[in-house]
Design a protein that fits this description.
The complex is a heterodimer. Chain A is built from eleven helices and four strands. By secondary structure, chain A is mainly alpha-helical. Chain A has one domain. In chain A, the strands form two sheets. A two-stranded antiparallel sheet of chain A has the order 1-4. In chain A, α1 runs antiparallel to α10 and α9 runs parallel beside α11. By secondary structure, chain B is an alpha/beta fold. Chain B is built from eleven helices and 13 strands. A six-stranded mixed β-sheet of chain B has the order 9-10-11-6-12-13, with helices on both faces. In chain B, strands 3, 4, 5, 7 and 8 form a five-stranded antiparallel β-sheet that branches. Chain B is globular, with a radius of gyration of 19 Å. The chains are: A mainly alpha, B alpha/beta. The interface between A and B is large, with 30 and 41 residues.
């Protein structure tokens, strides 16, 4: 029973990583940059939802919608103000800027909401389910998290595969200049990618804090880094890869914690990443990199 | 082929286009890279349904001209008028929407996407579809999506490629990839299409088919075609007006017959290869 319970917890945590990893991987796919501030957008999303429910008395579900809206705007602003001016700069400059944005968000949160941990109350209004005479308890958060993750996965896949904007996104990630010469507004397309990634980050933030209810300004950094790891693990730039990488990472982490060592669980996660990358440098589902002629 | 007659400006265009605004006009266009002048004093006029050629030895600046016309490069000097409107300061996407589309010397398809999706990227601006509609339409029920599908298949069919619609673009044979690039450019609904060495790497029968296709493009879509090409028989056969570039400057302009007999051209270009008469 502990095995099943661990597996469920792993999949649930992994689903959160997966949702965050989608943001990393979509942004990387389209603009070939690592948006290290992505983890902190999660934190902003969680704070917004927290403030909405505690101070304004807004119903939890509505608070998630507001958090998504705020994060969408935040994502577009970050892209427009910090990254767009660096479109032609070296990737190192963009990377440093992303780290700068990350610290900016963390410290702004510290300034606005203080350093005291906030206790986030779960947005999931259901009770846990007890099976086998209470030997196996599945939290409602786990079920909701996994369900949302699946919905997002399917929706996003359909969107990028068939939708007009999704096609534009794929075109821009393959060849930005050629896409623009075919009349696609690449700046708008990149903005939209950030918007979608950030809205997903808000969802991830709320789900994360529903499962692990301590909210501080650095809440987003570790999950952010792990989700980034998950994206690389699954093959950065690949949407199904981010999903698979995230869920595997969550399972590995929980299993590592319960069967090997709590203290070493993170080390195990990163060790697995290193091994996978040694064996398959493009990640599990990574596409081969086409050389330009 | 129509007679070439002069505009009031002195530029020659096919007789059928002379009453209409030229689709493309450049005046004293030039660009410097650092201290090097890559293109200078490039002034041309292209009629609305004219097939024109841009030829010249390697490194003469032909692709640079295409990059200038599509705003990939900002000109250092001069102006470009597309359909009577200036294109200065526009992005490449905006210029495309104003009516210019192109192919590339090195094929630049979205090679991981399907043939159909490549064409639908070209149709992007003619599909009216909202953000949320994108998700619902993804299920295959959308009117806009259906229309785009039909249009894309129609365009592919025009080049006998409809049966390849679901193949991955990168897996197509070379000749088909070149054709797909033309279809994708046509999908953006241009007034002029620029073809950068469309016959490169093709065998004589493929070249003959391409030649036929270029005429069909002009006749069916009623647009202008401008091409860079090294295959002299193709250029001399289908182009109504030809512009010869050497070291970034126009050394000759005129009809194929005028170009063939122009001593400057023979010296700079055809003469070097000693195949001017044989090939043309």
């Amino acid at each position: 029973m502990t095995f099943i319970s661990n597996l469920i917890n792993g999949i649930s945590l992994g689903s959160i990583y997966a949702i965050i990893a989608l943001g990393y991987t979509m942004v990387y796919g389209i603009s070939k940059m690592l948006n290290f501030a992505h983890g902190d957008v999660i934190m902003v999303g969680a704070y917004v939802s927290y403030i909405c429910t505690t101070s304004a008395g807004i119903p939890p579900i509505l608070s998630v919608v507001i958090a998504m809206a705020v994060c969408t705007v935040l994502g577009i602003l970050i892209e427009g103000l910090a990254y767009r001016p660096l479109r032609k700069a070296s990737s190192l400059a963009v990377l440093i800027t992303a780290i700068g944005v990350s610290y900016f968000l963390q410290n702004s949160a510290l300034l606005i909401w203080g350093s005291n941990p906030k206790t986030f109350s779960s947005i999931v209004p259901f009770d846990s389910i007890a099976l086998f005479d209470g030997k196996l308890i599945i939290t409602a958060e786990s079920i909701v998290t996994v369900a949302i993750c699946i919905i997002i996965m399917i929706g996003l896949n359909l969107f990028t595969k068939n939708g007009k904007m999704g096609k534009a996104m794929r075109a821009v990630s393959e060849d930005k200049d050629a896409a623009q010469l075919m009349g696609i507004n690449t700046n708008f397309t990149i903005s939209m990618t950030f918007a979608i990634g950030s809205a997903l980050a808000a969802v991830a933030g709320v789900l994360l804090c529903s499962a692990y209810p301590v909210l501080i300004p650095t809440t987003g950094s570790m999950p952010g880094i792990k989700a980034f790891t998950a994206a690389v693990f699954g093959g950065i730039g690949s949407i199904p890869g981010a999903m698979l990488g995230g869920i595997l990472l969550g399972i590995i982490e929980i299993f590592g914690k319960s069967y090997i060592s709590t203290a070493l669980s993170d080390a195990i996660v990163f060790a697995v990443l290193i091994i996978v990358l040694l064996l398959k440098p493009t990640g599990l589902l990574g596409k081969k990199i086409n050389e330009k002629v | 082929m129509d007679k070439m007659v002069p505009y009031p400006s002195g530029a020659i265009v096919p007789e059928r286009d002379v009453e209409k605004t030229p689709i493309l006009e450049t005046h004293h266009l030039g660009i410097d890279f650092g201290g090097l002048t890559a293109v200078d004093e490039f002034s041309i006029t292209v009629g609305r349904t004219e097939i024109s050629g841009l030829i010249g030895p390697n490194g003469a600046g032909k692709t640079t001209v295409f990059n200038l016309l599509t705003n990939v490069y900002q000109p250092t000097r001069g102006t470009i008028m597309l359909d009577g409107k200036q294109t200065a300061g526009k992005t490449t996407a905006q210029v495309n929407r104003m009516g210019i589309a192109r192919t590339f010397q090195n094929i630049r398809l979205f090679s991981n996407m399907s043939v159909l999706d490549n064409v639908k990227v070209g149709l992007h601006n003619s599909i009216k579809e909202g953000f949320f509609a994108s998700i619902t339409h993804s299920l295959g029920y959308g009117k806009a999506e259906k229309k785009a599908n039909e249009r894309a298949l129609q365009l592919l069919d025009f080049f006998s490629m409809a049966d390849m619609a679901n193949a991955e673009a990168g897996s197509l044979p070379y000749g088909a990839q070149r054709r797909l690039e033309i279809v994708r450019a046509l999908a953006t609904n241009p007034g002029i299409i620029l073809l950068d060495e469309p016959a490169a790497g093709m065998n004589p029968s493929e070249t003959a088919e391409l030649m036929e296709n270029i005429r069909r493009i002009r006749d069916t879509f009623n647009i202008a075609v401008m091409l860079i090409e090294h295959d002299m028989s193709l250029v001399m056969n289908i182009c109504e007006g030809i512009c010869v570039l050497d070291h970034g400057k126009i050394i000759a302009k005129g009809t194929p017959d005028e170009i063939k007999s122009n001593p400057a051209v023979i010296e700079a270009y055809l003469g070097k290869k000693k195949e001017a008469d044989g090939n043309a």
